């Protein structure tokens, strides 16, 4: 039997620094969350889970008809750790690897997400993470042996904390454009300069 991987797409945050929901920002004729969900589905993951919180009704509406499962994090304001926990709790029991991705990294590709999972399967490394701009972080893949650690995340503790504290070497995959994310109005203007 071949190994199974899932993508958990985090789209629950309140976008405090931006001042409006980044998930719903226009990008390439859609919204950032629609773009990210399409990329995740295109990775041929066995399952795509989108964790929503702030603006969850509007995000659900945008994703109507997408081949994703939407999970509500009622405590989204507590931070990313809770959203990761909600996504991992929702995984099918036979999942061997989960790829954690964010909706505000518009340069992610289906090949990148699938490649992270395949590298995890091939290497046996519990963590495969992306490298960009001097940072090692998301998107990243975690083998099932780390699901309990993901389920113990709280507050603003995210995947990067597990990467930093890993007792075993982390496999690294370069991600050109990974440092382009949307946290502020200036970030968004760099992404979509014609607005």
Structure described in brief:
The chain has 195 residues and is α/β, with parallel strands linked by helices.
Could you walk me through the main structural features you see in this protein, from its secondary elements to its overall organization?
With 195 residues, this protein is an alpha/beta fold. The chain has one domain (5-191): Alpha-Beta Complex (Spore Coat Polysaccharide Biosynthesis Protein SpsA, Chain A). Helices cover 31% and strands 24% of the residues. It is built from seven helices and nine strands. It has helices spanning 32-42, 56-62, 80-89, 110-123, 147-151, 159-164, 185-191, and strands spanning 5-11, 26-27, 30-31, 47-52, 69-72, 97-102, 127-132, 135-143, 171-174. The strands form two sheets. A seven-stranded mixed β-sheet has the order 5-4-1-6-8-7-9, sandwiched between helices. Strands 2-3 form a two-stranded antiparallel sheet. Strand 2 (26-27) and strand 3 form a beta hairpin. The longest helix is centred in the middle third of the chain and has 14 residues, at 110-123. The mean pLDDT is 91.
